[in-house]
């Protein structure tokens, strides 16, 4: 595999191999050295044409922990904000010898466009394209669920995940449904009908309009941000009503199983899709999702750049073991 553009690029075995590798690599992040020499001499560009905190910093930390050189390139402060095209930007990166580009872009399909082009020869990793996909987020979410609720090397068969909120504008939702279903989880999307995309019936999940009903027996509840920046019209009558029907609050958390996880990819609209007590409570793994993101992104970079044969990226055991 050369690029990571969509969860559809990964087989089930490759997805599990990434999670297993990330688990080994977490030992690097937790250890005193925090660095492996694997990608020494390689150049990785973070090309962010949309705002990001966690994803950009986490890819940067991941690349640095594998000893790559990292160039951060965001739309604000670069020639993209002067109207430079993706093609000219990509050719500039090629001229600088980028081995991989991690791209976030407002246009769905931008990462695919870059990968299909002859503008640059390196690996392309999709860090979020419009409302389409965000595969590394789905992998870190699956990693977090597996860490708490399943065993290493295993899939997520029988684990019930409820994903709630603005599915229409969320790339996280699509990637998560595809990956969690691939791993055998039982996924339910909960949203008002206005926040579900056309064609959602064909996704490998159930759909519910009743949050409390969907929460019965849930192992993990993943809240989605209401993406106000992508909304040009009103999709729900008012914020208070949205929170009442689709927000996660302390009472809903209390109704969960004792082992259930509360998740959110961040950034959160506290008080809208999630209350502070739910976000900061004992069941919340929201901060842990961020730290798991570094190990998972290390595993992705390792798989794409360290030249490991497909489906066999466990060679990292040897490197980590040698620490
Ligand atoms: C998500 C994104 O950018 O798609 N955030 C993230 O990557 N951590 C979700 C969001 O912005 O709501």
Quick description:
The chain has 323 residues and is an alpha/beta fold.
Structural class: alpha/beta
Give the class-level CATH name of the largest domain: Alpha Beta
From the N-terminal CA to the C-terminal CA, the straight-line distance is 28 Å
User: What is the rounded Rg?
Assistant: 19 Å
State the fourth-level CATH superfamily of the largest domain. Answer: Aspartate/ornithine carbamoyltransferase
**Record field, number of beta strands:** 9
> Low-confidence stretches at least 5 residues in length (pLDDT < 50)?
309-315
Largest sheet: 5 strands, parallel
Q: Helix fraction?
A: 25-40%
Secondary structure tally, helices: 12
β-strand amount: 5-15%
Spell the H/E element sequence: HEHEHEHEHEHEEHEHHEHHH
Number of domains: 2
How does this structure look, described?
This protein has 2 domains: 7-134 and 293-321, Rossmann fold, CATH 3.40.50; 135-288, Rossmann fold (3-Layer(aba) Sandwich). 38% of the residues lie in helices and 14% in strands. The chain is built from 12 helices and 9 strands. Helix 4 links the parallel strand 3 (100-105) and strand 4. Helix 1 packs across helix 5 and helix 2 packs across helix 11. Mean pLDDT is 92; it is low at 309-315. The structure holds N-carbamoyl-L-aspartate. Residues 54-55, 128, 134, 137, 171-172, 225, 227, 265-266 line the site of N-carbamoyl-L-aspartate. Residues 54-55, 128, 134, 137, 171-172, 225, 227, 265-266 line the site of N-carbamoyl-L-aspartate (NCD). Belongs to the aspartate/ornithine carbamoyltransferase superfamily. ATCase family. Pathway: Pyrimidine metabolism; UMP biosynthesis via de novo pathway; (S)-dihydroorotate from bicarbonate: step 2/3. One of its GO terms (molecular function) is amino acid binding.
């Amino acid at each position: 595999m050369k690029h990571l553009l969509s969860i559809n690029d990964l087989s089930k075995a490759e997805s599990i191999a990434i999670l297993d590798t990330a688990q080994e690599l977490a030992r690097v992040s937790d250890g005193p050295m925090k660095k492996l020499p694997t990608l020494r001499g390689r150049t990785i560009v973070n090309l962010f044409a949309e705002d990001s905190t966690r994803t950009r910093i986490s890819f940067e930390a991941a690349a640095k922990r594998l000893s790559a050189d990292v160039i951060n390139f965001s739309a604000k402060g670069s020639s993209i904000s002067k109207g430079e095209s993706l093609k000219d930007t990509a050719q500039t990166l090629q001229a600088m010898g980028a081995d991989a580009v991690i791209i976030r872009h407002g246009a769905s399909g931008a990462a695919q466009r870059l990968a299909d082009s002859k503008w640059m020869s390196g690996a392309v990793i999709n860090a979020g394209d419009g409302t389409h996909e965000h595969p590394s987020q789905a992998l870190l979410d699956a990693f977090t669920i597996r860490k708490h609720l399943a065993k290493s090397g295993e899939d997520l068969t029988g684990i019930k995940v409820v994903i709630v909120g603005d599915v229409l504008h969320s790339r996280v939702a699509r990637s998560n449904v595809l990956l969690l279903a691939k791993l055998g989880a039982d996924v339910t999307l909960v949203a008002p009908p206005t926040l579900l995309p056309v064609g959602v019936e064909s996704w490998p999940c159930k759909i519910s309009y009743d949050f409390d009903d969907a929460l019965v027996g849930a192992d993990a509840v993943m809240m989605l941000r209401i993406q106000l920046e992508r909304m040009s019209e009103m999709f729900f009558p008012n914020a208070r009503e949205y929170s009442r029907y689709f927000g996660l609050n302390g009472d809903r958390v209390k109704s969960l199983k004792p082992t259930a996880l509360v998740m959110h990819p961040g950034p959160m609209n506290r008080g809208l899709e999630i209350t502070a007590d739910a976000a900061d409570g004992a069941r919340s793994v929201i901060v842990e999702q961020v730290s798991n993101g570094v190990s998972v992104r290390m595993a992705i970079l390792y798989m794409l750049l360290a030249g490991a044969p497909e489906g066999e990226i466990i060679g990292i055991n040897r490197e980590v073991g040698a620490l």
